[in-house]
Recover the amino acids of this structure.
C-alpha cells in the first residue's frame, strides 16, 4: 500500500463528499478498504533507528572495553567474562519476547545487540586463548549463530549484518571456488525473511535498507564466486545481475511513489548506466582479448559446475525478463534491460576485436539516452529528460577526452551541452505552465 | 501459542550460542590442563609485519620438515606434524603425515610451500594477545630477543590430540608479562 497516496486520498475525501462528487457511504467504504494508515510511520522509524543505533553503540562500547584485554584477571575469570555479554544479550531477548512481543523497535534493537555480542564473545575467547588467526571461520561461525534471530525475533538488522558477513566471507575463498560458492546457499537463508518483510510493509525504510545491502552483497558475492573459469565473463554476469535487480524491482515495487522505496530499481538503473558507460571504453574489452589478460586460475572442471549452472541461470533469467518487458511494450525498461543481451554479443565478439563491442556500446548508450530524452520531452517529465541529458553528456564528454580534439572545440561542446540542458528544462517548465 | 513456539526456538538457538563458546573454552582448558607441554623456539620476525593490533605476531622457527618420499602435498592441505624434542629441550617436527598418527604428540597444520624434499608447515601458533598498552612494548622486547644471534624467545604450547593452545610467551626464561612488569 502506498501510504502517501492513501494519506492524500484521506485528505481529499471530506472535500469530495461535501462537493457531492462522492457519497458518504462510498467514502466510508474507501476508509474501510484501506484501513487506518499508520500515521506514526515516521515516528516509528525514528524509534527503531534510535534503538538500533543505541544497541550498536553499546555493543561496540562493550567490545572495546573487553578489547583492552585485562591482564590482571585470571584466565578462568576472563573465560566467564567473555560469556557475559552474550548472556546479557540473550536475557534481553527473552525479556522482549515475553514482555514486549509487539514492540518492533525493541525487538530490532535487542536482536542487533545480541548479534554483536555473539561476535564479541567469540572474539574474546580467541583473545583469551590466543586462537590462531582464522578470519573466515570466525566470520562464518558468528553469522550462523545469529541468522536464526532474523526469524525468531523478526529483525532485519541481523539479516543486514549476516549478508555483509557472508559476502566478506566469500572473499576468502578465491582459490577454493566450491567453498566460495556456498555464499549462494547461505544467502538463500535470508531470502524468506526478505520476501516476508516485502509483504509486510513494502514501503518502509527497513526493507529499503535490507534490499540495498542485499543488492550490493549479491554483486560483491557474484564477483567473488561466479564466472571464475571464463576470463572477462564478469561483463555478462554483472550486466545480468544488475538488469535483474532493475527489472524485478520495477515489477515488485511498481506502486511506490518515491525512489527511496524502490531501492532495487534505482540501484539497478544506476548500475546499468555505469556499466553501459564503462563498456563504451576500449580497455574493458581489450582486457578480455588477452592484451591485458592476467590469466584465469586453473580450476578443475567439476568444481566449476555450480558456478556455471548459476551463471547460466542468471543470464537466462535476465534475458527472459528482458523479453517479457519487450512483449509488454514497456520500451524504456526494455531499452535498459537489453544490457545483458548486448553484453553477451560483445563478449562473443571480443575474442576477435575489441573495437566492435566498444562501438556497439557507444551506439547503445547513444540510443538509450536519446530515447530517454525524447520520452521525457513527450511526456513532459523533467526528471526523465534530465537523466537522459546527463547520460548523453557523459557519453559525449567521455568520447571527447578519448580523442585528440583541440581545446576550442572541446570548450564549444561543453557550452552547447550546457545550453541544451538549460533550454530543454525551460521549454518543459513553460509547457507545464510553470514560470521558468 | 506462537509466543511459546518462538520462545522454544529462541531457547534452542541460545543454547547453541552458549554451547559453542563454552565448548571452545572447554577444549582449550582441557588441553592446557592435560596436554603435553612443548617449547617452540620463535624465529626472527619481519619487523614490518610484526605488530598488527594488540597481539604479538609469532613465528615458530622450526616450521620446515622433510617430506617422506613420494608424498605430494597441495598448498593448504591438512597435515599432521609429529613432534619431538631436541637436545636443548625445544620442540621440533619429527615428520609430517597425511593420516592422523596413532600415537605420540602431533599437531594439526596446513601445508605451505614445498621445495624439493622439504615442506614448510603453517602451524597454528601465530599470535599472542596482550593488553593494549603492553602489546607494543612486548613486541619490542620480543623483537630484540628474536633477532639472529640473540634468540632466546620461545612459546610454551600445550598439545593434545592434534590441538594446540599457547600457554605463554617466554623471553630469556621469563614470562613476558613478568618481564614487562619488572621493566616498568
Amino acid at each position: 500500500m502506498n501510504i502517501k497516496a492513501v494519506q492524500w486520498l484521506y485528505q481529499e475525501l471530506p472535500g469530495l463528499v461535501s462537493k457531492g462528487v462522492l457519497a458518504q457511504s462510498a467514502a466510508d467504504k474507501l476508509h474501510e478498504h484501506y484501513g487506518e494508515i499508520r500515521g506514526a510511520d515516521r515516528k516509528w522509524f525514528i524509534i527503531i533507528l534510535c534503538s538500533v543505533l543505541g544497541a550498536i553503540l553499546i555493543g561496540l562500547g562493550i567490545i572495546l572495553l573487553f578489547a583492552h584485554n585485562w591482564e590482571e584477571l585470571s584466565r578462568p575469570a576472563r573465560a566467564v567474562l567473555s560469556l557475559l555479554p552474550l548472556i546479557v544479550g540473550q536475557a534481553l531477548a527473552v525479556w522482549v519476547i515475553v514482555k514486549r512481543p509487539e514492540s518492533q523497535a525493541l525487538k530490532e534493537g535487542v536482536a542487533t545487540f545480541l548479534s554483536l555480542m555473539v561476535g564479541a564473545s567469540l572474539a574474546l575467547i580467541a583473545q583469551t586463548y590466543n586462537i590462531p588467526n582464522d578470519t573466515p571461520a570466525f566470520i562464518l561461525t558468528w553469522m550462523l549463530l545469529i541468522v536464526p534471530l532474523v526469524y525468531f525475533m523478526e529483525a532485519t538488522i541481523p539479516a543486514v549484518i549476516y549478508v555483509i558477513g557472508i559476502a566478506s566471507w566469500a572473499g576468502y575463498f578465491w582459490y577454493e571456488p566450491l567453498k566460495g560458492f556456498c555464499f549462494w546457499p547461505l544467502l538463500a537463508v535470508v531470502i524468506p525473511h526478505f520476501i516476508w518483510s516485502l509483504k509486510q510493509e513494502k514501503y518502509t525504510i527497513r526493507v529499503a535498507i535490507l534490499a540495498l545491502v542485499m543488492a550490493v552483497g549479491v554483486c560483491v558475492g557474484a564477483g567473488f564466486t561466479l564466472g571464475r573459469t571464463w576470463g572477462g565473463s564478469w561483463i555478462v554476469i554483472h550486466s545480468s545481475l544488475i538488469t535483474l535487480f532493475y527489472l524485478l524491482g520495477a515489477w515488485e515495487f511498481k506502486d511506490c511513489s518515491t525512489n527511496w522505496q524502490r531501492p532495487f530499481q534505482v540501484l539497478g538503473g544506476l548500475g546499468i548506466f555505469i556499466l553501459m558507460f564503462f563498456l563504451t571504453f576500449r580497455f574493458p574489452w581489450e582486457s578480455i582479448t588477452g592484451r591485458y589478460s592476467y590469466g584465469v586460475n586453473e580450476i578443475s572442471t567439476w568444481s566449476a559446475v555450480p558456478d556455471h549452472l548459476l551463471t547460466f541461470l542468471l543470464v537466462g533469467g535476465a534475458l527472459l525478463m528482458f523479453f517479457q518487458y519487450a512483449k509488454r511494450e514497456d520500451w524504456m525498461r526494455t531499452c535498459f534491460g537489453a544490457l545483458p543481451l548486448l553484453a553477451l554479443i560483445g563478449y562473443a565478439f571480443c575474442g576477435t576485436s575489441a573495437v566492435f563491442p566498444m562501438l556497439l556500446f557507444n551506439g547503445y548508450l547513444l540510443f538509450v539516452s536519446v530515447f530517454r530524452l525524447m520520452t521525457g520531452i513527450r511526456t513532459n517529465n523533467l526528471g526523465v529528460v534530465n537523466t537522459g541529458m546527463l547520460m548523453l553528456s557523459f557519453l559525449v564528454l567521455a568520447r571527447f577526452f578519448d580523442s585528440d580534439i583541440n581545446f576550442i572545440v572541446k570548450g564549444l561542446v561543453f557550452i552547447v551541452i550546457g545550453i541544451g540542458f538549460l533550454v530543454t528544462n525551460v521549454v518543459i517548465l513553460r509547457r507545464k505552465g510553470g514560470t521558468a | 501459542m506462537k509466543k511459546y513456539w518462538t520462545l522454544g526456538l529462541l531457547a534452542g538457538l541460545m543454547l547453541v550460542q552458549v554451547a559453542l563458546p563454552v565448548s571452545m573454552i572447554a577444549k582449550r582448558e582441557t588441553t592446557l590442563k592435560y596436554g603435553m607441554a612443548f617449547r617452540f623456539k620463535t624465529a626472527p620476525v619481519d619487523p614490518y609485519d610484526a605488530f598488527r593490533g594488540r597481539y604479538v605476531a609469532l613465528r615458530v622457527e622450526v616450521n620446515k620438515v622433510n617430506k617422506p618420499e613420494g608424498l605430494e602435498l597441495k598448498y593448504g592441505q591438512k597435515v599432521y606434524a609429529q613432534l619431538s624434542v631436541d637436545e636443548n629441550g625445544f620442540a621440533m617436527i619429527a615428520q609430517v603425515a597425511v593420516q592422523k598418527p596413532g600415537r605420540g604428540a602431533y599437531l594439526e597444520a596446513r601445508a605451505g610451500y614445498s621445495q624439493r624434499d622439504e615442506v614448510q608447515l603453517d602451524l597454528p601458533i601465530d599470535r599472542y594477545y596482550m593488553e593494549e598498552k603492553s602489546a607494543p612494548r612486548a613486541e619490542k622486547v620480543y623483537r630484540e630477543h628474536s633477532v639472529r644471534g640473540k634468540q632466546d624467545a620461545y612459546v610454551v604450547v600445550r598439545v593434545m590430540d592434534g590441538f594446540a593452545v599457547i600457554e605463554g610467551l617466554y623471553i630469556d626464561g621469563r614470562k613476558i608479562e613478568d618481564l614487562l612488569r619488572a621493566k616498568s
Observations:
- Residues 291-297 of chain A have pLDDT under 50 and may be disordered.
